[in-house]
Amino acid sequence: MRLDKWLANSGIGSRKEVKKLLKTGAVTVNGKMVKDAKVQVNPDEDEVMLFDEPVEYREFIYLMMNKPAGVISATEDSRDETVIDLLDEMHRHFEPHPVGRLDKDTEGLLLLTNDGQLSHHLLSPKHHVPKTYFARILGEVTEADAAAFKEGVVLDDGYKTKPGDLVILKQGKESEIELTITEGKFHQVKRMFQSVGKEVLFLKRLSMGAVTLDEELELGEYRELSGEELDLLGKS
Ligand code: URA
């Protein structure tokens, strides 16, 4: 890989900042000063130092975002802003992907990573990773709905869902709930409520597996996962 990629991936700065730093002669590869960003280096063989300190190569990045409504969970889109557009260059050049999708109008926890193995683990139906959502619902959500979700409901395409755990937080003409499901069918939460004659007015994901949305993150903000969160996901 190129030397500037190594340096940028280690968190020193963007590719542009790294190039400037290289020009100052602050970087050595195997003890020799290198100013050329294009020089090829190999994490298994080469030692890169910045101001005489070793620079560890970092391959993967793990981010949590508080996704705002109006933004698409995709890497590119011809019309709409994507969650990738919300990332700094320093994180974008790792080429992370959203782990699964939230609808354009859904808010909340979205993990982004370039670690394909982790994405696969979290998304594979075999692993039954629980996802918890908060929702405001038009209509009175009842214990009968909770019982139906526990049993599994039949969606508009005939698919019967796996059991979902519905907790009613507020009952009324507009209700508030938390729903935990272990699948990720297209529009699943909205379609589950549709199957019991109700409409989701607002939807926010609170958690995925053992990782919970950091409520300190404003809508559109993101941060790297902590060591503890990576442990919870079986990483690090
Ligand atoms: N279920 C939905 O209906 N929408 C989402 O964005 C996520 C789950």
What global shape is seen?
A: elongated
Strand content: 25-35%
Q: Main β-sheet, in a few words? A: 9 strands, mixed
Element order: H for helix, E for strand: HHEEEEEHEEHEHEEHEEEH
Which consecutive residue ranges, at least 5 long each, have pLDDT under 50?
none
Give the mean pLDDT. 95
Report the CATH architecture of the largest domain: 2-Layer Sandwich
Helices, by number, come to: 7
Please provide a written account of the structure.
The chain has 236 residues and is of the alpha+beta class. It has three domains: 3-54, Structural Genomics Hypothetical 15.5 Kd Protein In mrcA-pckA Intergenic Region, Chain A; 62-125 and 211-232, Alpha-Beta Plaits (2-Layer Sandwich), CATH 3.30.70; 130-208, Alpha-L RNA-binding motif (Alpha-Beta Plaits, 2-Layer Sandwich). Helix content is 22%, strand content 26%. The protein has seven helices and 13 strands. It has helices at 3-9, 15-23, 89-92, 116-123, 143-151, 188-195, 227-232, and strands at residues 27-29, 32-33, 48-50, 53-54, 62-67, 97-98, 107-113, 131-138, 165-170, 174-181, 199-208, 211-212, 222-224. The strands form two sheets. Strands 5, 6, 7, 8, 9, 10, 11, 12 and 13 form a nine-stranded mixed sheet that branches. The longest helix has 9 residues, at 15-23. The protein is elongated. Uracil is lined by residues 102-103, 106, 187-190, 203. The site of uracil has 8 residues, from α6.
